[in-house]
Amino acid sequence: MEVDFTKLDQRDRYRLLCSFVAPRPIALVTTLDKDGTSNAAPMSFFNVFSQDPPLVILGIQVKPDGAPKDTITNIRRSREFVVNMCDMAIAQQMVDCGINFPQSVDELEVTGLSLAPSRQIQPGWVAEAPCAMECRVAQILEYPRRSIVLGEVVQMHVRDECLDENGRYVRPDKYQPIARLHADNYIVSDDQFELLPTAALQSARTA
Hints:
Layout: H1 10-20, E1 24-25, E2 27-32, E3 38-43, E4 46-51, E5 54-61, H2 70-78, E6 80-85, H3 91-96, H4 107-111, E7 115-116, E8 125-126, E9 131-143, E10 146-158, E11 178-180, E12 186-188, H5 199-206
Antiparallel strand pairs: 1-11, 2-3, 2-6, 4-5, 5-10, 6-9, 7-8, 9-10, 11-12
Domain Flavin reductase like: 20-171
Cofactor: FMN
Protein name: Flavin reductase
């Protein structure tokens, strides 16, 4: 099957892209509104793209009526946000944070999540998250119905048990993030395996 994306309806483009580019990690993004109320929103158009500088990228679409979402409104104003990674322990709260609450509602409060103070920025981070990254905006690319936010990570909070005794490597038995597949389907990374280059090919390359 061949699919011409230049002629395809945007809903079908979304369906195909999200079904095949998967699993996608989920960012539960926390921000502050102009009155100091916390906002939390899950996003699966998210990933890390660089370590030098340390950059993460968010893709934030407008609401169905074309209005900007609270998250991007807050980010444009404050230039700060936190990416909170999600595991099974907070999976339901993450999904519930995606409900279209009124702007004045604190999603963390209504879902039972706790907010911890950040070190370098104003928005707090989710205390129950296995990992959280404080970010400052490096750049925002604007499209008619989507904003692409490049954020520079300035601080990371990590649950102690997620790292080995040297604090360098993730323990796969303790850090098992969830990711989105398609529609309302998710996956957890609880069946991990190690895969190395073929020894003979590696030897031939370095010979």
